[in-house]
Amino acid sequence: MRVVVQKYGGSSVADTDRIKNVANRIAKKVQEGYKVVSVISAMGKTTDQLINLAKSLSQRPDERELDMLLVTGEQVSCALVAITLKDIGINAISLNAFQAKILTTKHHTNARIMDISVSHLREYLKEYDVIVVTGFQGVTEDGHFTTLGRGGSDTSAVALAAKLKCDCEIYSDVVGVYSCDPRLYPNAKKWDYITYDDMLELAATGAKVLHSRSVEIAKKYNVKIYCASSFSQEEGTWVVDRLPEWLEEPVVTGVSLDRNQMKVSIMDLPNEATVIADIFKRVADKGINVDMISLVKNGSSTHVSFTVVPDGVGKIEELLNETLSVYGAKYHFYGQFAKITVVGTGMRSSYGVASKLLEVLQSEQVEPELITTSEIKISVLVPEDKAEMLVKKICEAFEL
Amino acid sequence: MRVVVQKYGGSSVADTDRIKNVANRIAKKVQEGYKVVSVISAMGKTTDQLINLAKSLSQRPDERELDMLLVTGEQVSCALVAITLKDIGINAISLNAFQAKILTTKHHTNARIMDISVSHLREYLKEYDVIVVTGFQGVTEDGHFTTLGRGGSDTSAVALAAKLKCDCEIYSDVVGVYSCDPRLYPNAKKWDYITYDDMLELAATGAKVLHSRSVEIAKKYNVKIYCASSFSQEEGTWVVDRLPEWLEEPVVTGVSLDRNQMKVSIMDLPNEATVIADIFKRVADKGINVDMISLVKNGSSTHVSFTVVPDGVGKIEELLNETLSVYGAKYHFYGQFAKITVVGTGMRSSYGVASKLLEVLQSEQVEPELITTSEIKISVLVPEDKAEMLVKKICEAFEL
């Protein structure tokens, strides 16, 4: 039995014509001899509409009930896809998280998959050619619905593929993984293959093809992911553990852009190890996501800068006012900035990426506000109004 | 533990303001010391919209998948009611048919409730003040969703009340049970009490306050039903086994009107018992609902007339063409007619209802096309254009 998981995103099932298109694509795979496990997202903007409905009734909707509400979105689209498949003679059945036995933790609105009953699914696959499974959702051991957070349908799909030990095809409105967003740099390269590690960095730094958690699971269980568009027959991108041997590994695989960043600088903190730890613990306790962190010690005092999204500014200001008075330190906010990240597993065995990147900035007379690096990426914070131009220049410099 | 079932229809939860109103009504009952099991229909016209969506994808949507689709309507409204209740500090939880363990037969789109796990519900009632249960739906033993057919939420509510041995309050946009539709006869009386038997006849003959199946269950398990409007505080109507003793039983409790009837007459059938049985078996096999049947024997031949709704005309014409050629009989369609039904358990012990009804028709120079009677009702078929006028005259004659 050849099995494949196919995931279709919300824009791929946004209306009845698109649902018919998805059903025809699934049918084609069945005709090729596959049993298909199809993971479907909610139609178009359904999830956002349901959230707005809930918020019009309660400023902070109960999370258990919010999940109960949101899971209906995928059930609708799955039933409609199954209806269409049945109509064109394909033996299909739709299953929600209860029926597919997708067990999760109890963290409503942000649960993690604990287990999927694969023997149960295999029973269904004996009887049906297509199982249409609701993405984004699960159930707890005591029978309550949960959701997996934004991008959760990707996670559902990869987890199912991991359990069924098969490939995972992810269809969206994006044709594949590019070296750079083609809207920013029209000459961007589309990769035939990319490694999990590069994909993880790209997903984490703003490329919206795949949700990072799904790539983490794919890496852990070595699930091959194929990303392509549901609207064309154009070849997509394989996300894999390592590139095929005949393919020379590029040093840089992608450039991503994350707009709308603010920089917070704190000056003149005392040089004690506990101080920095204390500040970042307080920030984390408030649920504020801090991204680039850069620290400089200077004689008797420490200066630290980091980035936050503007949504978090109110909360962080309140917190810094409380905290810093104890230490006699000052802080400043600076905006608007954007983060440019250059990613590539190939950097591990290659030199000069940082210097080439800084050269581009220098030749455009832009001073980076912050620089952070990891083994396989370098990020620079630059003024937002220069960011697009810089991305183009960087792509040219690295021949992407 | 004082428990009550409250059911709110689709129009009562059609928008967020109405949902808040329903939540406030439920909260009031909790403050009076009740544990409330609240059965909620899908918002407004949701079910129709979902059916149309399915039909735009398949002329005959797979029924198992159609149920999978439709059950989401009630899950949305239940989650929203629970969110609103939680927001105003009421300890509530919503449960779908899986979670409430409402077990049904396997007849998709028209299933019947087989059992409800009452011990399970009582466990929830220990922990929560309100359980919001999805109406209209159930699950089969092997875990597929089913729906109970039109009006199924009434059935869900009464079945829950039967299991929990409590009263059942049914809220809709109708204030209670009237002797006649107030739109037809503005002076119609609203009853404080009506018997199951009268309610059954009224429900079956066009009064839309309660669905007949729910009244059948109420009668079988002696569940007291209270029908009232969710939009006002006006007293509604109790549907009970027998009227309170201090209340004199009216001879006639209601007049109902069923428009859009066609009459089929078949002439010159041979006088053999098997012929009529054969014809009506064929009609039933085609799923055509025949209502009033009247038969006259005349020497060597039999004439039979019955009513159908115009939707069935195509199917029945085809069938009669096939069947009647064997017997050498002729048929005719006549329309448009309306059926007026006069209902009253009191008829059992009272005479002259039929003659008073026919007197009204005579004085208006209307000849009834068909008459059928049961122990507690009389129906006459009359030209549709005279029907409204006749209903008024009949109400006046019976002092309703």
Main attributes?
homodimer; 400 residues; alpha/beta; Carbamate kinase; VC0802-like; 2 domains; six-stranded antiparallel β-sheet; 12 helices
- Main sheet: strands, sense, barrel of chain A: 8 strands, mixed
Query: Uncertain regions of chain A: pLDDT < 50 for 5+ in a row?
Result: none
Number of distinct beta strands of chain A = 18
The sequence of SSEs of chain A as H and E is: EHEHHEHEEHEEEHEEHHEEEHEEHEHEEH
Strand order across the biggest sheet of chain A? 3-6-2-1-9-11-12-10
- Summed over residues and divided by their number, the pLDDT of chain A gives a mean of 89
Please state the structural category of chain A. Answer: alpha/beta
- Named at the architecture level, the CATH assignment of the largest domain in chain A is 3-Layer(aba) Sandwich
**Most residues in contact, chain pair and counts:** A-B, 37 and 37 residues
Q: What is the CATH top level name of the largest domain in chain A?
A: Alpha Beta
| CATH domain topology of the largest domain in chain A | Carbamate kinase
Oligomer: homodimer
Please indicate the percent range of residues of chain A in DSSP E strands (runs of 2 or more): 25-35%
**Fraction of residues of chain A in helices?**
25-40%
| Total of domains of chain A | 2
CATH homologous superfamily annotation of the largest domain in chain A: Acetylglutamate kinase-like
Rg of chain A is 23 Å
Question: What overall geometry of chain A do the principal axes of the alpha carbons give?
Answer: globular
Number of continuous helical runs of chain A: 12
Domain Aspartate/glutamate/uridylate kinase (chains A, B): 3-228
Protein name (chains A, B): Aspartokinase
Binding site for substrate (chains A, B): 47, 74
EC number (chains A, B): 2.7.2.4
